Amino acid sequence: MRLLFCVHAAIGTGVCLSIAATASAAGGVDDASRGTARKLGYAGVEAYQAGDYRTAHEKLEKAYAVLHVPSLGLWSARALVKLGKLVEGSERYTQVSQLALAAGGNEAVQKRAVADAESELAALTPKIPSVTVQIEGAPPAEVQVQIDGVPIAQELLGEARPINPGPHKIEGQRGSEQAIVELVLAESEQKPALLRFKAAVVTTPPTGGALAATSDPSSDSPSGGLGRQRTLALIAGGVGVVGIGVGTIFGIKSKSNHDEAAKYCNGSECTDERGVSAGTDAHAAGNVSTGAMIIGGVGLAGAAVLWFTAPKPSETASARFGVGVAGGSLLVRGQF
C-alpha cells in the first residue's frame, strides 16, 4: 500500500509527495508517526508555495527526520535555499540524490524527485560563496579557529570553505592572543580571511644556552637594525677619527716645540738649555703624532671594510667581530 498526495499550486500544476505506507519502506516507522509526518509534509509544501519559507522549513524538516524519502528531502532542500542556507540546502540535495527508492512508494514520483534534486544542486553550486581562512604570524597548529562560533578543523585551514551569503565572524585564538575578521559575502563571492598574530622571533642569548623566543619583531641584533658588524664599523670609525685628531694635535705641538728649539739651536748644536728641552719635547710629540695618525688611518680603513662587507640581516647571527688596540696598532678580528 502507498499514499500519494498532491498540493496544487496557483498556476494549476500539481506537486505530489509519495510516502510508502509499509513499515519496511519507512525503516520501521509506525503508522501514527508516518501519518503525522505525511501531514507535516503536506503543510510544509503549502507553506512553501505561499512564500512562508520559515514555516515550510520547520514542518518539512520534522517530516524528513521521520521519513527519509526523496520527495520530502527535495522540498526541505528548496526551503533551506529560500532561507539563504545554501550550504545546508546543497547537502540536502546531495542526500536526496543518493537515497534509495523506498519499496512500496510511487516510483515515478520518487525518481522525479531525485532527478530534480540533482539538477537543482548543479544550478545551486556556483552560487555558494566561499571563504579561505589563513593564519599569519603563528603556526596554524597553535591557533583555534571558529566561524560564527563553529570550530574549524585545523586541516581545513587554507582551503576554500563553502559558506552562506551574509555577514560572518571569523575568530582565531592563540593562547591569550585573539584575531578577529568580520566580512560579508554575496552569492558566488570568494573571499580570504587573514588572521594576523604577532610573529615569534628566535634569538640566541649573548652568553649562550637555550634559545629564547620573543614577540618583538624588531631587529635580532643588539644595534637595533644596523647589524653587529656595522655597529663595530662605527666603533672602528670612531677610533680612527680620534686617532687622527690626537695625531693632529700632537703634530701641531711638535712643530711648535721645534720652532721654539730653533731659537736657541743651530742644527744639532744648542747654546741654551731651553733649546735642548724644546727639541726633546718636539721629538716626543712627533712620535705620538705619528703613532696616533697610524692608528687613525687603520681605524678608518677597518671601518670602511667592516661597513661595506657587512652581511645581510639574516647572516648576522653567524658572524663575529672584534676590535682592539694593542702596541700602537688597531686589531680587527672576524669570524664568518
Q: Counting H and I runs of at least 4 residues, what is the number of helices?
A: 7
The outline comes out as rod-shaped
Give the CATH superfamily of the largest domain.
Tetratricopeptide repeat domain
Q: What is the fold-level CATH name, i.e. the topology of the largest domain? A: Serine Threonine Protein Phosphatase 5, Tetratricopeptide repeat
Please name the CATH architecture of the largest domain.
Alpha Horseshoe
Number of strands: 15
Number of domains: 3
Q: What quaternary form is this?
A: single chain
The average pLDDT is 79
Structural account:
The chain is an alpha+beta fold and 336 residues long. The chain folds into three domains: 2-126, Alpha Horseshoe (Serine Threonine Protein Phosphatase 5, Tetratricopeptide repeat); 130-196, Sandwich (Immunoglobulin-like); 228-335. It has helices at 31-49, 53-66, 70-82, 86-98, 107-124, 228-262, 273-308, and strands at residues 2-8, 14-20, 130-136, 144-147, 150-152, 160-162, 166-174, 177-185, 190-196, 201-203, 212-214, 265-266, 269-270, 320-326, 329-335. The protein has a four-stranded antiparallel β-sheet, with no helix packed on it. It has a three-stranded mixed β-sheet with strand order 6-3-9, with no helix packed on it. A two-stranded antiparallel sheet has the order 1-2. Strand 10 (201-203) and strand 11 form a beta hairpin. Helix 3 (70-82) packs antiparallel against helix 4. Residues 1-5, 7-14, 20-26, 208-224 and 314-319 have low confidence and may be disordered.
